[in-house]
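W.,

You were right to be curious about this one. When I first looked at the sequence I had no strong expectations either way, so I just let the prediction run and decided to look at it fresh. Below is the sequence, 270 residues in total, followed by the output.
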Amino acid sequence: MDLEPVEVFSRSNLANGILLFSINFTCEYVWEKHLQEFPDGIFPAKGKSDIEGIFPPPYFEWFQYNEEFTEYTNLEECISYLCEYITSNGPFDGLLGFSQGATLSALLIGYQIQKKVLKEHPPMKLLVSISGTKFRDPTICEVAYKDIIKVKSVHFIGAKDWLRLPSEELATAFDNPLIIRHPQGHTVPRLDEEATEKLRAWATEIIECNSKVLEKEEAKVNEEKKPEMPDKIDKQEQTAASSFNQRATEIIKEAKVDEEKKQEMAEKTI
């Protein structure tokens, strides 16, 4: 099973891709264009790209960093760009990212929970992280990973990945994460049957759970609407009854006037 749609790379030429997606609530993922977005990195990649010779240039990255991964360049610009992109093209239910893209995706979800970004966007429901890591700047960690991140998450960690330990650390920032290990390195892995089944069960559980939530919300809305209908009918009946009574009163008055006039004429005749 190849985790990442071919379009992620063939369209964007990115080695640090991010996929924004929505969930179809019929217990299947539907990879339609209106349900998925692949935002492009906004900064030219510095140094040699890992996908050189596989895909033609130009190559892009989201931000730059020092060797210790404690100082970052263009990170704030990158976050602003992605938040604007998500707000303009969403809403989305989750993010899938590889390497730098996974690291950023986890950061955005952590920031959103702490109400630092995406305040007007619905809460993200899940994360798929492939070779993602935590940021190491304490000022970022104190916000993004302040509390356990309670969204569904799956973390793909390669035995030969140079980011294996940082990927393990990122997984600990999430509540009850699913960790899928593979024997490969820093790459989007092809999964064996066992790992594929784990991923399928994880995705199915999420979709079924969200489907039940939607059903409950719909039932609640329908229940709230029920009392309104009799009220409307009662008001209509009251209006009709009021109009009828008013007209009946007028007819009685008119009949009484006519009767009095007839009586006056009869008296004059006598």
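Here's what jumped out at me. The longest helix spans residues 228-269. And, maybe more interesting for your project: Residues 88 and 146 are 28 Å apart (CA to CA).

Coffee later to discuss?

I.
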